[in-house]
């Protein structure tokens, strides 16, 4: 989402040196940035690229301001300011809440209305899903799982029984949480599996 330097200054808390109405549409490296893009300098290894940058603006510290050929956002923590600005420019599209027709839900589940259950999700019994949760396609949620506010399961995630996922946690595609360990006991020529009765909590 394009933004002016004035907006990005407010978002990041950095001091603006330059035109507040300058439009920024994306981020890039100091060496590759061009007009309409913003870059940052937080690692001294790249300080030599600063005087040559074509970026419309650079996020940097006070000590590097004199070498900057463009507008600047001055911060004591340039990398943190960059993180805030990048998140603002690349905001996630607002999710649509609800439960897909192809999702399968178990018994005694508590699912907040402000959550998203995508296609082909399978949810077991006694599962609690709080507000703002996003569960992507093909995820499996086993019995007695709790998922905290604004957590995201991107796709193909499996949460085994009794798992607790805290607020704002992001689980990327293919993650499996709470699967069996390798507990086995030998009896002569055979192995007896030891039940995995614990749980996993992610905060």
UniProtKB/TrEMBL annotation:
Which Gene Ontology molecular function entries are recorded, alphabetically? N-acyltransferase activity
- Membrane in keyword set: no
InterPro entries xrefs: Hexapep, LpxD, Trimer_LpxA-like_sf, UDP_GlcNAc_AcTrfase_non-rep
Q: Where is the UDP-3-O-[3-hydroxymyristoyl] glucosamine N-acyltransferase non-repeat region domain?
A: 22-87
Q: Which Pfam families match?
A: Hexapep, LpxD
Q: Which GO terms describe its cellular component?
A: membrane
Q: Which GO terms describe its biological process?
A: lipid A biosynthetic process
> Keyword annotations for this protein?
Acyltransferase, Lipid A biosynthesis, Lipid biosynthesis, Lipid metabolism, Repeat, Transferase
UniProt protein name: UDP-3-O-[3-hydroxymyristoyl] glucosamine N-acyltransferase non-repeat region domain-containing protein
Question: Which species is this record about?
Answer: marine metagenome
Q: What is the lineage of its organism?
A: unclassified sequences, metagenomes, ecological metagenomes
